[in-house]
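Minutes, project huddle
Topic: does the predicted pose make sense with S-adenosylmethionine bound?
PN asked that the exact inputs be recorded in the minutes so nobody has to dig through chat later. Recorded below.
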Amino acid sequence: MNTTHTIESNKEKSWSKRRIIPQEISKYLNNGRCFIDADRIEDALKKNNAPEESRVREILQKSLTIETLSLSETACLLNVENEDLIAEMEQTAAEVKRRVYDNRIVTFAPLYLSNYCVNDCLYCGFRRSNTNSKRRALNPDEIEREVQVLAGQIGHKRLIVVYGEHPKSDVNYIASSIQTIANVQVKTKHGTGQIRRCNINAAPMSVEELKLLHQIGIGTFQVFQETYHRDTYEALHPQNTVKGNYLWRLYCMHRAMEAGCDDVGIGVLFGLYDWKFEVMALLQHAVELEDKFGIGPHTISFPRMEPADNTPYTQNTRHPVSDRAFRRLVTAIRLAVPYTGMILTARENAEMRRQMLSLGCTQTDASSRIGIGAYADATEEQQGDKQQFILGDIRSLDAVVRELAESGYITSFCTAGYRCGRTGKKIMDLLRTGCEGHFCKLNAIITFREWLDDFASEQTKQVGEKVIEKEIAEVKEKLPSMYPQLMNFYQQTKTGKRDIYF
Ligand code: SAM
Ligand code: SF4
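Predicted holo structure (tokens), as shared on screen:
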């Protein structure tokens, strides 16, 4: 080992040691215990292992009132095996989605900025012991080039920006990269392209660090627990790493809320432990946030583990999640936490994505590339050693938007929510009562118009026009008081004005 390498590695070690602040865990515990209660979960799953049809139907009715389900109600849903009843549950899940989010789907792209990582998660291609992985953190010029493609050529308005945990991608790097992204403006056919919302997926942080991110203005702060099953967690995340600390990760959303970042995204990496246990634990997490802060998770993610280069663990899981189980868990999450946004990613293949969207997912990515620097330089993507895992669906945004439109969905590029203060509790209340939908419907029409004019292929534009016509007719009929203002904004957008919103 050469001297520079030793100094670097000592620096990483001392940085890692300072990451965890014990009192930023202990202050949130309930009498020294955490909110994940594995015994209660196991007990509820056992007691409700053969639910009666009438009970299941009662639970479905409760979901339709957009009320969070209890642990035993969710256990009932997870234990249904009768195919006809499962079909009923799926229809109800779709109806819950329609009541809260109508026919809107939000699209985004992942942007990986750094794959340096001090952790060693067994399932991840970026883990520090993976010597096949070439490490890189993009500098401001490189970030700008990525955004020029994303915002200027593809037409994305919303990103999830992803970072490994490392001193080279610490909170200052995160803050300045978000500012770099926000400042890029690209000339398009009829206006300017720009990223308007940056959600971030990064390691857990302290309250002070999260306050900094809140100040510069991030969208959703997303951290997946990976698995809520503590023994499994500790086996997959070596105990001498920062990520090895289960509770530091579990309470990161409490710290986010305290810091003012009230749009938080939780999730599980499915395939690490029993999927029924994980859905129940996600629910306990949502309820804990509702109880402590009056706000549940803005989004829930449910990635399935994918193969990754030089990462044998991904091929040998003891808890594989079949397509059937995946359908059931997506349905159960939709019904158990009816107000939450549900994110489906391009890890899943195109056919699976079609099926899952109809079960109540609200957001999905498209034209995704997960190699570092891969939007500006496509050859980066072909190099498996730079990727975290392998994607299942690499279709363009244009192709995904067209397919969505053909199936009756409108793609919303709206990012108004957090820019006009509709976040956290405000948005939760609006979602539960169905009122958020009014703003969203109008903003979806305006932003879809923008995107069709600036980025769509002729074929997609034709299908998109029909969707817009139908949406405008619905506003005229169902929200007549909003119609004149909608048409005013719509005409302005048609003549090239950009970024107008309700
Ligand atoms: N380093 C940060 C962390 O771990 O929280 C954030 C970035 S990490 C790259 C984002 C997410 O990728 C992880 O939370 C994990 O759920 C997911 N992931 C890791 N390996 C994966 C794999 N083999 N297949 C699918 N998703 C994976
Ligand atoms: Fe690092 Fe995140 Fe990958 Fe774990 S999942 S190795 S923390 S990038």
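Observations noted during the meeting:
- Residues 54 and 433 are 27 Å apart (CA to CA).
- The radius of gyration is 22 Å.
No decisions taken; revisit at the next huddle.
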